Amino acid sequence: MLRGTCVNTEDLQLTRPLLIRSARASEQKQLEALQWRASLENPGDREALLANPDAIELPLRQIEEGGVFVAELSGVVTGFAAILPRDDADSELDALFVEPSAWRGGVGRALVEHCCAAAKALGARSLHVVGNPHAEGFYLACGFEAHGKKQMRFGVGLLLHKPLR
Ligand SMILES: CC(C)(COP(=O)(O)OP(=O)(O)OC[C@H]1O[C@@H](n2cnc3c(N)ncnc32)[C@H](O)[C@@H]1OP(=O)(O)O)[C@@H](O)C(=O)NCCC(=O)NCCS
C-alpha cells in the first residue's frame, strides 16, 4: 500500500502544498465529521441523511486495513477517500469527500489519482464507484466511464469505472 505522496501541485494547479497519506485510527471521528459536512452540501441529500444518521460511518477496520487516504492541504485535513477490494480483483472507491470550502480546488482529483495508484499496486485493472449523481461531472472529468445505474438506499447511484493504465 502507498504511504505518503507529495502531489505535483503544478500538474493539479494547486496553489498550496498537498500531502496524501494513510489515515490514522485516531482520525476516525474527524473524518466522519468531514463526511457529514461534505454530504450535507449535496442539494436534496440533506433531509435523507439527517433522518438516517447511520448512513455516515467510516469503519475503524477500514482505516486499520490501510485503505483510507487523507488529503492534507497546507497541513490541514481537507478530504479523504477509501478503497475496498472487489471479488473480481478490481478495487471499489468506497468513499470520497472533500471539505466544502475546498471544493473545485483539485483535492478530489488528487485523492482519485492516489486511489488509482493504490488500486493498481494491489493488482486492480479498474477503479469502480457507485457515484452520487451530484458528482457525475467530477467523475467524468477524472476519467471515469459511466456504464449504468443502480438503485441505492437513498436514490439512484451511477455505476462508473476508471481503467487503470
Ligand atoms: C465530488 C467531490 C469529491 C469533488 O471534489 P473537488 O475537490 O471539488 O474536485 P476537484 O476540484 O478535484 O475537481 C476535479 C474536476 O472535476 C470537476 N468538478 C468538481 N466538482 C464538480 C461538479 N459538482 N460538477 C461538475 N464538475 C465538477 C472540476 O471542475 C475539475 O475539473 P477540471 O480539472 O477539468 O477543471 C466534492 O465535491 C465532494 O466532496 N462532494 C460531496 C460528497 C460527494 O458527493 N462525494 C462523492 C460520493 S460518490
In terms of topology, how is this protein built?
Layout: E1 5-6, H1 9-12, E2 18-22, H2 28-40, H3 46-51, H4 60-64, E3 68-73, E4 76-85, E5 91-98, H5 107-121, E6 126-131, H6 136-141, E7 145-152, E8 155-163
Parallel strand pairs: 5-6
Antiparallel strand pairs: 1-2, 2-3, 3-4, 4-5, 6-8, 7-8
Bound molecules: coenzyme A.
Description:
With 165 residues, this protein is α+β, with helices and mostly antiparallel strands. It has a single domain (5-163), classed as Aminopeptidase (3-Layer(aba) Sandwich). Helix content is 30%, strand content 33%. The protein contains six helices and eight strands. Strands 1-2-3-4-5-6-8-7 form an eight-stranded mixed beta sheet. A hairpin with a 2-residue loop joins strand 7 (145-152) and strand 8 (155-163). The chain is globular. The relative contact order is 0.16. The model has no long low-confidence stretch (mean pLDDT 92). Bound molecules: coenzyme A. The site of coenzyme A has 22 residues, from helix 2, strand 5, helix 5 and helix 6.
From the N-terminal CA to the C-terminal CA, the straight-line distance is: 18 Å
Q: Compounds present? A: coenzyme A
Using DSSP, what is the number of strands? Answer: 8
Helix content: 25-40%
* CATH second-level architecture: 3-Layer(aba) Sandwich
Most strands sheet: 8 strands, mixed
List keywords for this structure.
165 residues, alpha+beta, Aminopeptidase, eight-stranded mixed beta sheet, globular, binds coenzyme A
